[in-house]
Design a protein that fits this description.
The chain has helices at residues 23-31, 86-100, 120-133, 148-153, 158-163, 167-175, 190-207, 222-232; strands spanning 8-17, 50-62, 65-75, 107-113, 141-146, 180-182, 237-238. It is of the alpha/beta class. The chain has one domain (8-230): P-loop containing nucleotide triphosphate hydrolases (Rossmann fold). It has a seven-stranded mixed sheet with strand order 6-5-4-1-3-2-7, sandwiched between helices. Helix 1 packs across helix 7 (190-207) and helix 2 (86-100) crosses helix 8 (222-232). The protein is globular and about 45 Å long. The two termini are 20 Å apart. The model is unreliable at 229-240 (pLDDT under 50). The chain binds guanosine-5'-triphosphate and magnesium ion. Residues 17, 19-25, 38-41, 44-46, 78, 146-147, 149, 183-186 line the site of guanosine-5'-triphosphate. It holds the Pfam family AIG1. Residues 8-240 form the AIG1-type G domain. This is GTPase IMAP family member GIMD1.
């Protein structure tokens, strides 16, 4: 989070998750509007990284000053991916994150589904985050469980539900200091659903003293430099 300008906070968020986990939908919930393409697919909907941003005037008060939040969210292709190689996804994410967040990433959101059992693909995300950002990713990460509406419909409380999850899931939860958040991306009011999620991410950023994660040197190679040229022509969308 930049502290140089009084009355302004920046939050750079990187979304990661396996296919159809609800990454794009979670990005939309964070932004409070439908910006990223999100739909049911037997393949993968998001094929390229895409940045959207939004400004929230007067989102919070800091030291008595009304403060604007400048949120930037980078949506990414699924990892692992049935259409793109793992190396390609890693390179694409590394290139895009380095380009759109030159000052670094404040918070990582690992998206997984609450309505299906945690699986091996989810575990691979740990390696992806570690490889892209180094070991510090853990203190900047929130595990987001999408499809919380299914859990609510089943009449189970979220803590009770998590207690029933596999050992691998518990290990992941422990590795991010038990930071998790259930989200219903199908909610009629994404702004209302997104607010507590945003507040949690701001807390994570503040707890890590507003430090920022950089893409590990060496992750962006010549191949991805070519991809970067392509990204330059893919103008980000300014929402407000
Ligand atoms: N009911 C419900 N549906 C959700 C939720 N989150 C996502 N979905 C649905 O799940 C499907 C996949 O969501 P996406 O946001 O496209 O998932 P993704 O991870 O971006 O998918 P890929 O880009 O294909 O990897 C869509 O039909 C969403 O509407 C949720 O919290 N509740
Ligand atoms: Mg997507």
């Amino acid at each position: 989070m930049d502290q140089t300008e009084q009355g302004l906070l920046c939050l750079n968020v990187l979304l990661l998750g396996r296919p159809q986990a609800g990454k794009s939908a979670t990005g939309n919930t964070l932004l409070g509007s439908y910006e990223f393409q999100s739909r049911l697919s037997p393949g993968a909907v998001t094929r390229e990284c895409r940045l959207c941003w939004k400004t929230f005037p007067g989102f919070l008060r800091r030291q008595g000053v009304e403060t604007t939040l400048r949120l930037r969210v980078l949506d990414t292709p699924a990892y692992p991916n049935c259409l793109l190689s793992s190396e390609r996804v890693k390179q694409d994410v590394a290139t895009a994150a380095e380009k759109v967040f030159p000052e670094g990433v404040h918070a990582v959101v690992l998206v997984t589904r609450a309505d299906v059992p945690f699986c091996q693909d989810d575990c691979q995300l740990v390696h992806l985050a570690e490889e892209l950002l180094g070991p510090a990713w853990r203190s900047h990460t929130l595990l987001v469980l999408s499809h919380s509406d299914s859990v609510s419909r089943a009449g189970v409380r979220s803590e009770e539900y998590l207690g029933l999850a596999s050992g691998a899931f518990q290990a992941l939860l422990e590795s991010v200091d038990h930071r998790y958040h259930f989200v219903d991306n199908s909610a009629a009011w994404p702004q209302t659903e997104g607010r507590p999620l945003l507040e949690k991410l701001l807390r994570i950023s503040s707890q890590s003293k507003y430090s920022r994660l950089q893409i590990k040197p060496g992750r962006v190679n010549d191949l991805s430099k070519r991809q970067q040229e392509r990204l330059t022509h893919n103008e980000p969308i300014h929402l407000l």
